[in-house]
Amino acid sequence: MFDNNVFIExxxxxxxxxxxxIGFEMQTHITYYRGIPLSMVNYMEVEVDGKKIPREDxxxxxxEFDWFTLKEMETVTTIKWExxxxxxxxxxxxxxxxxxxHDVKLTVCTRTAYIPIPIEGVMTRKVTIH
Length: 130
What we know:
Structural class: mainly beta
Radius of gyration: 14 Å
Strand order of the largest sheet: 1-2-8-6
Number of strands: 10
Helix content: under 10%
Number of helices: 1
Largest sheet: 4 strands, antiparallel
CATH topology: Immunoglobulin-like
CATH architecture: Sandwich
Shape: globular
Order of helices and strands: EEEEEEHEEEE
Number of domains: 1
């Protein structure tokens, strides 16, 4: 239902810090029609070319400043992910994505206080890294 909100087209790129590529990132919208605290993110998953990325290698930010692991997000009740505001999902991977085409799959699952089942969105995009 919310698949079109996941993995904003054209946002996948390698990330460089201090002259070194530390991984890659992409942006996503929330899989819900309202904002939620980060603690209400059930899970996120990333696959590259069919290989699942370990969850401990993911970092998420809704403000490009405060980065959290998925484990840390379980207790973050004071930062809210608003509807319409993209979150950035960063994958820590030494060297990032190699140049060329890759199939990148992003899954975002949230929960709410009054819907008894999690709301999941999944999107796979073919991305080209130059």
